[in-house]
Specification:
The complex is a heterodimer. Chain A has one domain. Chain A has helices spanning 53-59, 61-78, 84-105, 114-141, 143-146, 155-181, 193-217, 220-234, 250-253, 257-270, 276-301, 304-307, and strands at 11-12, 41-43. Chain A is mainly alpha-helical. By secondary structure, chain B is of the alpha+beta class. Chain B folds into two domains: 59-249, Rossmann fold; 255-391, Coagulation Factor XIII, Chain A, domain 1 (Distorted Sandwich), CATH 2.70.50.60. In chain B, strand 6 (175-179), helix 6 and strand 7 (206-210) form a beta-alpha-beta unit. In chain B, helix 3 (113-123) crosses helix 4. In chain B, the strands form four sheets. In chain B, strands 5-6-7-3-8-9 form a six-stranded mixed beta sheet, sandwiched between helices. In chain B, strands 10, 11, 12, 13 and 16 form a five-stranded antiparallel beta sheet that branches. Chain B is built from ten helices and 18 strands. The chains are: A mainly alpha, B alpha+beta. At the A-B interface, strand 1, strand 2, helix 2, helix 5 and helix 12 of A face strand 1, helix 1, strand 2, helix 2 and strand 4 of B. Strand 2 (41-43) of chain A pairs antiparallel with strand 4 (88-93) of chain B.
Chain lengths: 308, 438
């Protein structure tokens, strides 16, 4: 690499001495640091999303932690009930569905009390929908950061999902109480919870990343997203059992990656048999979506500061 | 010496259409329908914010970057700090870079001072350990020890700014990019900030400093680069560049109008339309020393039900020293501007500030206008040194038999009275005694 001065540029040498009323001493008093042979950072068109981006992400991991921490802190500080809201939301929806679908319509619930049946799926669903909604708006809502400071942009939707993940983990306490109340014994199936949580988090991140990046360019995304998420709930086995879906539609139905995950949560909590096929399929679709979302995000990332 | 920053043929193009705020799917679909061959997005108007800019900075140097609004300074800093990508050209950085385009980025009003220090530090790229090690130093520098566990929404704007600057000032990159952080705060704090910047420079770190404060540029920088219309117009010794900056800036006429709101200084909350100097009943940039000078600022408010908006004017002299600053806020006014306390719907407004006759001394002055929203202060539009004027001495304060010029930045007629303190005989008696002793 040619490091000599190019024709069009000239080196600005430090002034020999610079004194003034504030008492600024000569510039470059201490020995200048020895410079590396090759540049630490090269800025070029198309370089912002180079191979260094994973290393960059690692360097900024503490920022992810602080953004999640800020979201939680501010959310709990500003509401009177604070952390109670985290469990209130799935509890209230569960109550509503228990009255209408459980008591009135009498939807079959795999031989467990309907409230437990719904709550076991409502917990992951609340996390997923909340994470998608928050992360979908996260980039636009953080325009003040994006236009002023450099950091890997993907941290913003990640932090949004992270905040909801903490809420989700907290609300498991209520699940435990509910299981104890209905005297449903825990089984070894609970061991599947960590991989299921990971899978659901990745899926939420994939949708959130894609939605947040698209939202920067097309603000319509913010308007349509809640509607789609609402529809998605009814396209997933949240308030009804997977078994209610006719066999011949099952394959088409399972294209929805949430089907395997939500059904998996219910099986893990209630000790029912897992549908491994659906789960494997969910995992494959999730990874595919994540790769697609990551590519979309990287492609659009460099324009965020100009568009947001 | 090998440069630490090397900028080569850097250009950045903005598509004005692509920057439009209400970019919706419908607009995109419409443009596809209208011109299917252009691939979705209309070519639109383009603007070269930077064009073929090349320069190098040696390690340990403090370089000022000056230029008028829209000259490309901010774009240059944004490209250097990797916020936005260049269209062509390249930059090589041979050291860790830290940028300070704004103080208090990411500050959250609900969080305490302590919490915001950690959050802001992380946003600026500091490690938690690093922040922890410097925590006490930061708090002491900001002088907020007693309020460190109070939410920053209860801070005065001065405390807020001090804390925000303190975190940023303790960043320790090898290359520091600084934009306009000294434009806020009181004089004592500004001095402290300048002192800190000088300290950073003495430690042998490289600083690129963008500012409209020519005094600060003069004091801190050994060299300066001037941008004009996205191109590098001049680089050299600071004094020469600053002189050229002022020379190129005095456009004369006493009026500056931005007919196209999209190109006017401002953002989606407020935008400038015109700044005008009126004296003797007409637009005039050579007011007589004994005539009032009215500064008219026309601007758009774009926010429905806007509150706490204010117009802020700085007048500085030819050396860059601020002679006065004023705003249409009640505490700063002799005649209260009712407008300030009202809520406003979107529309065009005009604020007029009157500088009294027999006040500024003769000489050249520069007018800087800011549109701001208060609490905490946020600058919506800025027009640095947008107009200049020459105060013309008509000789009203010339005393027969005395010199023509009164020293000082201001030349005010003040009330005077002299009265005897002791009876005449006592005074002469003392004098007589003193005389006798000698």
């Amino acid at each position: 690499m040619d490091l000599t001065t190019s024709g069009s540029a000239s080196v600005l040498k430090p002034a020999a001495a610079l004194t003034d009323s504030t008492g600024t001493a000569p510039a470059g008093e201490s020995a200048p640091p020895t410079l590396p042979e090759s540049p630490l950072v090269t800025i070029e068109p198309g370089r912002a999303t180079g191979l260094g981006s994973m290393r960059d992400l690692w360097h900024y991991r503490e920022l992810l932690y602080f953004l999640v921490w800020r979201d939680l802190k501010v959310r709990y500080k500003q509401t009177a009930l604070g952390v109670a809201w985290v469990v209130m939301q799935p509890l209230l929806t569960t109550f509503v569905f228990s009255v209408f679908l459980g008591l009135l319509v009498r939807v079959p619930s795999d031989d467990v009390p309907y409230p437990v049946f719904v709550f076991a799926a409502m917990l992951p669903w609340t996390f997923f929908s909340g994470a998608v909604a928050t992360s979908g708006n996260s980039l636009v809502g953080s325009s003040h950061l994006i236009t002023k400071v450099y950091f890997p942009r993907v941290i913003i939707p990640m932090a949004a999902v992270g905040g909801r993940l903490v809420d989700f983990l907290v609300s498991f306490v209520v699940m435990a109480l509910l299981l104890a109340f209905y005297r449903i014994a825990p089984t070894w199936n609970l061991l599947m919870l960590p991989p299921l949580i990971l899978l659901l988090t990745l899926l939420a991140l994939a949708v959130g990343m894609w939605a947040s990046a698209s939202n920067v360019r097309y603000r319509d995304v913010a308007a349509i997203l809640p509607v789609l998420v609402q529809l998605w709930m009814f396209a997933s086995p949240v308030v009804y059992s997977l078994k209610m879906v006719p066999e011949r539609w099952r394959a088409l139905y399972s294209l929805n990656p949430l089907v395997g995950v939500i059904a998996g949560f219910r099986s893990a909590v209630l000790g029912h048999a897992f549908d491994w096929g659906a789960l494997a399929f969910s995992a494959a679709v999730t990874l595919g979506l994540l790769a697609f979302a990551a590519l979309t995000f990287r492609r659009m990332e460099k324009h965020f500061a100009d568009l947001v | 010496m090998k440069p630490i920053v090397r900028v080569e043929g850097l250009s950045k193009q903005y598509r004005l259409g692509a920057r439009a705020r209400h970019d919706t799917l419908r607009d995109s679909l419409m443009s596809v329908l209208k011109s299917p061959l252009r691939g979705g997005r209309g070519a639109g108007e383009t603007l070269w914010a930077l064009q073929d800019v090349s320069f190098e900075v040696a390690p340990g140097e403090v370089v000022g970057i000056v230029g008028r609004n829209g000259a490309g300074k901010s774009t240059l800093l944004k490209v250097l700090s990797r916020i936005t990508e260049p269209t062509s050209g390249r930059v090589e950085l041979y050291g860790r870079i830290g940028s300070l385009l704004e103080v208090g980025t990411g500050f959250h009003p609900e969080l305490t001072g302590r919490e915001n220090i950690y959050l802001n530090g992380a946003i600026l790229g500091m490690r938690r350990r690093e922040i922890g090690a410097k925590f006490d130093e930061i708090v002491a520098f900001a002088e907020v020890e007693r309020f460190i566990d109070t939410p920053v929404k209860r801070y005065s704007s001065g405390m807020y700014m001090r804390l925000a600057f303190a975190v940023a000032a303790h960043l320790e990159p090898e290359i520091l990019l600084v934009d306009e952080v000294l434009a806020v705060g009181d004089a004592a704090f500004q001095k402290k900030c300048l002192g800190k910047m000088g300290e950073v420079a003495r430690e042998g770190r490289t600083v690129l400093f963008v500012s409209h404060n020519m005094t600060a540029v003069n004091q801190l920088c050994s060299r300066a680069v001037m941008l004009s219309d996205g191109r590098l117009a001049l680089e050299g010794r600071t004094q020469e560049v600053v002189a050229e900056y002022f020379r190129a800036g005095s456009d004369g006429g006493g009026e500056r109008v931005w007919p196209d709101p999209k190109r006017a200084p401002g953002n989606r909350r407020m935008r400038l339309r015109a700044v005008r100097l009126i004296s003797g009943g007409h637009v005039n940039n050579e007011p007589d020393i004994d005539k009032e000078l009215a500064i008219e600022v026309e601007f758009w408010n774009l926010v429905p039900g806007a509150r706490n908006q204010a117009v802020n004017i700085y007048i500085s002299d030819a050396t860059g020293t601020v002679v006065l600053s004023t705003a249409n806020t009640p505490a700063a006014n002799s005649v209260e501007d009712d407008w300030f306390r009202q809520n406003h719907e979107p529309g065009l407004f005009r604020s007029v500030c009157t500088i009294p006759a027999n006040f500024l001394n003769e000489g050249t002055y520069y007018v800087t206008v800011y549109l701001v929203t208060l609490g905490p202060i946020s600058v919506e539009a800025e027009a640095p040194q947008v107009l200049s004027f020459n105060v013309f001495d008509t000789g009203v304060m010339r005393e027969p038999g005395a010199g023509g010029r009164w020293d000082g930045v201001v030349r005010v007629r003040l009330p005077w009275r002299t009265e005897p303190l002791t009876p005449p005989d006592a005074a002469t008696g003392d004098d007589a005694a003193g005389g006798a002793a000698a």
